[in-house]
Amino acid sequence: MPRPHKCRRVEFLPDTTYFKPAGKPLRELEEVRMSIEEIEALRLKDLEGLEQEAGAKKMNVSRPTFQRILASARRKVSDAMLNGKAIRIDGGYFEIKCRRLRCHQGHEWKQEASVSALPTLCPQCHEPSLVPVASVTLDAKDRLLTMKRES
């Protein structure tokens, strides 16, 4: 029996989740799908400049697993860029830490520790697009796993 799949930890969810080559109609494009974990591995290694060991620790995976995630992400980006494909970022099996939430209008608030699910609308403007800012644990379907109280 294989080991259960371990939830990868991410600290960032991109606002933009679709990229396509300019000048090509969407209906003519093939699509490359990238998971949130692959984007996080690229962010940690290539943007933050972390060594693989440090990136693996932040994502709560082994160094070889981090390396496989990173290699997969780089292969997909290369395929899309060199072969004129669109990139869709979605899915995966991850958790995100957040304690504060922000809507796309810029309203930010502290989430109460007693809730069993995250809100779907901003309490001020009722904007449906919410972004975790820092320390609730969510799974890939935005279900609440754990929440830590702010000190």
> Got a strand count?
10
Provide the gyration radius in Å: 17 Å
- Name of the level-1 CATH class of the largest domain: Mainly Alpha
What does the main sheet amount to?
A: 3 strands, mixed
* Content of β-strand: 15-25%
Please state the average pLDDT score. 81
End-to-end separation in angstroms reads 41 Å
Q: Which fold name fills CATH's third level, the topology of the largest domain?
A: Arc Repressor Mutant, subunit A
Overall SS class? alpha/beta
With strands numbered from the N-terminus, the spatial order across the biggest sheet is: 2-4-3
By CATH, the architecture of the largest domain is named Orthogonal Bundle
Query: How helical, in percent, are the residues?
Result: 25-40%
Q: What is the number of helices? A: 3
Output the helix-strand order.
EEEHHHEEEEEEE
Uncertain runs are 147-151
The shape is: globular
Number of domains: 2
